[in-house]
Task: inverse folding
């Protein structure tokens, strides 16, 4: 891939940053909460890994399917009304012309200028439909692919959600000693910071506030999960 091709690829896919942030945040929070709850309950390291990966694979897939179906429903609804507008233009053109006239009259056009605007718009059916979708129905076509939305959501959920499990997997494979949960907290906090930074870029808000907010919410979720796990352990065991 050439340098220009890489730039074009990044430009075409940067619109999916919001989905990446959404999926990554959910993946990190839920997996970290699962790990924290399991640690609070005193479960074995192998059980923590099993529960964590079950969350990554199952919850991530469910979330990505939900994102895909939601985006597809929006597209399907848009196309339904678009077909309706084409039918109306074909079958009741004068009524549709009057609707265009009313729309632009409300914008301040009048007399000969208004008629010229109406003639110009209705001279092309595609342009005519596009105007009716935007001005009458207040609907815009979604440019993002539902499949890519679902895919990006799943990939980010899995990749970012893997961070809380990394230390436990490495410890299981290479017998690393130490307090794994402390290492996990530190590593996951860095993951939250990255997601918070990207979120602030998407929402055009302050970088520091975005990072601190994301870290805070993630740690609160983990603390609650840990407390519940610890309480259930004392209650059941």
Result:
């Amino acid at each position: 891939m050439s340098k220009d091709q890489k730039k074009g690829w990044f430009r075409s896919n940067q619109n999916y940053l919001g989905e990446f942030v959404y999926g990554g945040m959910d993946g990190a929070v839920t997996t970290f909460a699962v790990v924290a709850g399991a640690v609070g309950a005193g479960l074995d390291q192998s059980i923590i890994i099993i529960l964590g990966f079950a969350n990554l694979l199952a919850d991530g897939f469910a979330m990505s399917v939900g994102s895909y179906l939601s985006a597809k429903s929006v597209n399907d609804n848009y196309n339904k009304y678009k077909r309706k507008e084409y039918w109306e233009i074909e079958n009741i053109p004068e009524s549709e012309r009057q609707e265009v006239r009313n729309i632009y009259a409300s914008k301040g056009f009048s007399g000969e200028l208004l008629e010229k605007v109406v003639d110009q718009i209705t001279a092309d059916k595609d342009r005519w439909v596009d105007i009716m979708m935007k001005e009458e129905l207040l609907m815009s076509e979604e440019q993002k692919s539902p499949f890519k939305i679902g895919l990006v959501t799943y990939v980010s959920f899995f990749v970012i959600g893997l961070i809380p499990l990394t230390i436990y997997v490495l410890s299981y494979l290479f017998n690393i000693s130490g307090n794994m949960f402390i290492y996990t907290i530190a590593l996951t906090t860095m993951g939250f910071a990255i997601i918070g930074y990207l979120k602030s870029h998407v929402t055009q808000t302050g970088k520091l506030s975005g990072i601190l907010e994301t870290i805070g919410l993630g740690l609160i979720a983990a603390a609650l999960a840990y407390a519940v796990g610890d309480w259930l352990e004392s209650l059941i065991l």
